[in-house]
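Researcher: Go.
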Amino acid sequence: MVNFNSAVNILEVVQVSPPSSNSLTLPLTYFDLGWLKLHPVDRVLFYHVPELTRSSLISKLKSSLSATLLHYLPLAGRLVWDSIKTKPSIVYSPDDKDAVYLTVAESNGDLSHLSGDEPRPATEFHSLVPELPVSDESARVLAVQVTFFPNQGFSLGVTAHHAVLDGKTTAMFLKAWAHNCKQEQEALPHDLVPSLDRIIVQDPTGLETKLLNRWISASNKKPSLKLFPSKIIGSNILRVTYRLTREDIKKLRERVETESHAKQLRLSTFVITYAYVITCMVKMRGGDPTRFVCVGFASDFRSRLNPPLPPTFFGNCIVGSGDFDVKAEPILEEGEGKGFITAVETLTGWVNGLCPENIEKNMLLPFEAFKRMEPGRQMISVAGSTRLGIYGSDFGWGKPVKVEIVTIDKDASVSLSESGDGSGGVEVGVCLKKDDVERFGSLFSIGLE
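Model: Structure:
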């Protein structure tokens, strides 16, 4: 039976350090600095393992986490920015007893309910992810929480500072940790060993300095790592997962090919899925057709740079794109999926603009755009990706039955990931008020008929 009044009890908080290792200082790049004061990214992975005991679970996770941190030393460290340093750096020092804080908890809730697709209160997930301590001069990089559900399984909550690692690095770390837990003494595969080289990121235009100056201006003219405040989430916000099957995506792609007169459209799974979600979101809100909508997404630039960065580059290498002033009217247009076609054509233009020459413009634009936007403007953005392979995180007890990005309830973003069943579909996560859930769900279903 579903326990809607479930409680999560913290049993202990332990420090997990890598095996004996040297200290490390890793400066942030401009890719990192673009996310300096934005909220961390919270993920929770659910595993259904009824026969598992808490003692064996925690023992294996702790020892494998320690082994993994030897390759991912920055995650055991702190982000540091004081008045002496010109820019923030990640510092790991065994002398300062730097470590990852691992919270061990137990819940009497229903794991199947939490890991389902149906509407669930967004606040139910907050107690499954740990917080990151942040001050003006220092911030923890990573925190982990293991919540045991007796006779059901466990959840793994991971909170990552966005200025230190992007989704690809987070997924790489989780799969490396899972590998070490499952395979124990077997060496990490090459594609899970991170590259910590920062010299390869060139900054010919001084973008780092421009970003730092803007962050300092936003922090009372002084260096500060304190994050922008996040909005308080009430009990009226529901988390829901919608799914597009491989066949759904194929039909939507064929609809664009038939109805659009534009040439050389980008019809990737991402473009088709996000365009469909944008269409449903804008129509869900309705309202004045002359209103503006802010639409954005972030793209991995590792392979887009010249020369490219290695696929295993540690840190951020994502750049935002989109438009802060999208007109709602063309997307609201009815008849033969015209709004969806418009969204695909618009997204194509943004994807075509993903080139190194536009990095500086795209990274500096938000500072000015957010100042002039009117309150209440609809904002749509993406968290996650269908290419991260996050469902490959098998710690030895099988793949996760569900992965959620908890923080989408803070910034009106939608989460995208590959389907956990390996069918080639896409999972779309949203957090909305009850009435909006009903409207969005109806639009989502009708558009696929």
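Model: The radius of gyration is 22 Å.
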